[in-house]
Amino acid sequence: MKSLCNKSLLPRLPTGQKDSLVTIFGYPLSIFFIVVNEFCERFSYYGMRAVLVLYFKYFLKWDDDFSTTIYHTFVALCYLSPILGAIIADSWLGKFKTIVYLSIVYTAGQVIMAVGAINDITDGNKDGTPDNMTFHIALSMVGLLLIALGTGGIKPCVAAFGGDQFNEDQEKQRSTFFSIFYLSINAGSLLSTIITPILRAQKCGIHTQQQCYPLAFGVPAALMVVSLIVFIVGSGMYNKTAPSGNIMVKVCKCIFFAIMNRFHNRSSQIPKREHWLDWAEEKYDKLLIAQVKMVLKVLFLYIPLPMFWALFDQQGSRWTLQATTMDGNFGLMVIQPDQMQTVNPILILIMVPVMDFIIYPLISKCKLNFTPLRKITVGMFLAGLAFVAAALVQLQIDATLPDFPSSTEQQAKFINMVNRSIDITAGKYAFQLQTLQGNEEYYTYNLPFDLTIDSGPTETIRLPGGTRNTIVIVEEAGRMTNIKVGIKVRSKSKSNHIFFNGFGMTLNITVGEEGFGNIVSKNMSTYVDVPQGTAEFVIKNAAGSTCAFKREFGFGSSYTFIIPPTFILEENCEEHIKEVEDIKANSIHMAWQIPQYFLMTSGEVVFSVTGLEFSYSQAPSNMKAVLQAGWLLTVAVGNIIVLIVAEAATLPDQWAEYVLFAALLVLVCIIFAIMAYFYTYIDPVQIEADFANLEPEDEKKKNLEMTKKDMVENHDEKKRRSSNEGKIVQTNF
C-alpha cells in the first residue's frame, strides 16, 4: 500500500524555503498543527469571554455599568494589540517566534484569571464573597491584560504563518487551508460558548460552594496550554520566513514624510502638487505613493465603521446581562444567560450560505446593483434594527422587574414572627401585620427612617443605601424587637436566593449540595444561590430528626422561608414553613432575544464578510495586511465608543440606551451612504501594472521636464518679487 506521507510529492519551494516538508494528500503536514493550535486558542478566548461579564457582576460584585465598561475595555485592547504583534513579527522576531512568545504570555494570563477566581485562596465568607477582594481584582486585571496582549498579538500572525507553509504552485491547497482555518475558528468559538457557561454553572469550592468560575476559566487555560504545546511540537516541519520589514511601518513613514515635507515647504514657491502624498516623491518611489493613496482611500471609508462594532460587541455584555433577567427554560433544556451568545455563530453558519446562494442571486435577478458599499450600509442598518428589537424586549422586561432603590435610598419589607397581629409605623407608612405574615411590597425610604412597633419605643433604622432588606419582628422577654436582615440585592439575579429564619430551635438545613449550616434559635442564615429547577431541602435538628421536601424555582427569584417557633419535624413539615416571595421569577422568555440576534447576525454577515472582501479587492497586493490592521482597529474603536456613550449618556433606563445606540448607528449609516456614493472603485492590479510598465528612461525624462518647468516658473516668480521678499526654498529631488 502506498504511503500517504510522501515528501517527494511536494513541489519545489521558492529559494529560502524548505524543500523537505512532509505532505499528506499534497498538503503540508505542518498545517495540521496550525489548525489545531487555532481551534484551541479560539476555544480559550471565546470560552473565557463568554462568562467574563457575569464574573464581573456576580464574583467581583461590580454593577452592570462598570462590568460593561471593563468588558469593552478588554475587547478594545484585544483589537489594538494586533498592530503591535504585526510589527514585532515582520520587523524583528518573525511569525513563529512571535506566536510562541506571545502564546506563553497568553497562557500565563489565562492561568492567572483561573487562579484569581478561586474564592478559597482568601478564605471566602459564608455568603461567597472573598475576604480580600482587592487581591482577586488585581489578579483578574493582570490576567486580562496579558490575554489581550497575547490573543491580539498572535491574531495577525497565525493565518499568515499558515499561508507561508505552501509554495507558489499550491494556490488551491492554500485556499482550502484558509477555509479549514476559519472553520476551526468558528468551531472553537461555538463549542466554548456552549461548554464554559455549563462549567461556570457548576458548584465548587472548599469553604463555600459557589458558581465555578475557576473551572470556567481553567478549562480555557488548559486549552491554551494544549494550543502552545501542539504548535511547538510541529516546529521542525514549519517553513519559517525571516522578518523582512513591516509594510505598515513603511506606509506610516511615507505618510509622515509627505506631511512634514509639505509643512516645511508651505512658504516656498514650489508649485502645488496634485495630491498631498505627492510631497513624498523626494524619498519614496511613485508606485509606493500610489499604493498608499489607495490604502488611505479605503481607510477614509473606515471612519464610520466603528459604530457598527460598538453595537455588535454588546452581545457579550449588555445582551448577556439582559438575558440574566429572562427565563431560559426551553423545555428540553435550560439555557444559561451566557449561552445565548451561541445563537450568533449558529446563525452565521446558516446565514452565510443563505446570503450567498439565495439572497444575493435573487437581488441580482431583480437587476439591482447591490455594490459592496451598499451591502455594508444595509448591514449597519440591520444592526440598528437589532438594537431597536433589544429595546422593545427590555421594555417588556422592565414591566416585570421590581423597583430597585437608588444609591441614596433603602427598601425594607417587614415580617411578623409574633403569635399575634402587630401594628407597625415605619417612616411615613403605617400598617398592621398578622402573625407569620410579611407585607407584600418593599417600602422605599430616604436614609434613615423611624420604626415603631405597637406604640412601643421608636427606633431609628439605618440600612445601607441602594439595598433591599427584610426586617423580622420578634418578641424577646415580652418586648417587641426587630432583626435586620440585609439582602443587598441591587438588581435581578440569575439564580434563586433562599433565606431561612430559624426560631425556637437549632436546625441544620441543606439544599442539594449547598449547606445553610446550623441555624441557632432566633437567628438567620445567609442567602444561598439555588439553580433554576427542582430543589430538595433537608432539615435536621440536634436529635437527628429529619424532614425533606422539594420546591420548584424559576429564574431570578428571591425567597425568604420562615420557620416558626412551633415548627415540628414531621413528614409534611413544609406545610408549617411560611414562604415569602421577595422577587418574582423571570417571566419574559429568552427566546424573545432571538429576533435581535437574527437581525444582528444578518447585519454581521452582510457587513463583515463584504467589508473584508471589499478591502481585499481595493488594496494593493503588498498592503492587504495594512487594511487588515485598519479593519481590526475599527473593532477596537467601536468598543471604546461603548465606553464613552455608556459613561456620558447616564440614561436611567437600559431600553433608552439601546435606542440611543440604534439612533447613533442610523445617523452614521446615513453619513457612510453619502461617502459611499462619491467613492470610485479602482483596480489596484491595473494601477500597479501601469506603474510597472513605465520605463525608467521615461520616468527620468518626465522628472527632468518637471524640474525644468519648476525652475522656469520659479525664475519668473522670482523676477516679479522684490528683493526683500526672501529667498525661494530649494528642494532636492
Automatic annotation (TrEMBL):
GO terms for cellular component: apical plasma membrane. Pfam families: PTR2 (PF00854). Residues 702-724 have a biased composition (Basic and acidic residues). Keywords: Cell membrane, Glycoprotein, Membrane, Peptide transport, Protein transport, Symport, Transmembrane, Transmembrane helix, Transport. InterPro entries: MFS_trans_sf, POT_fam, PTR2_symporter_CS. One of its GO terms (molecular function) is symporter activity. CDD domains: MFS_SLC15A1. It is found in: Apical cell membrane; Cell membrane; Membrane. Residues 702-733 are annotated as: Disordered. The keyword Cell membrane applies. It catalyses: L-phenylalanyl-L-phenylalanine(out) + H(+)(out) = L-phenylalanyl-L-phenylalanine(in) + H(+)(in); glycyl-sarcosine(out) + H(+)(out) = glycyl-sarcosine(in) + H(+)(in); L-leucyl-L-proline(out) + H(+)(out) = L-leucyl-L-proline(in) + H(+)(in); glycyl-L-aspartate(out) + 2 H(+)(out) = glycyl-L-aspartate(in) + 2 H(+)(in). One of its GO terms (biological process) is protein transport. This is Solute carrier family 15 member 1.
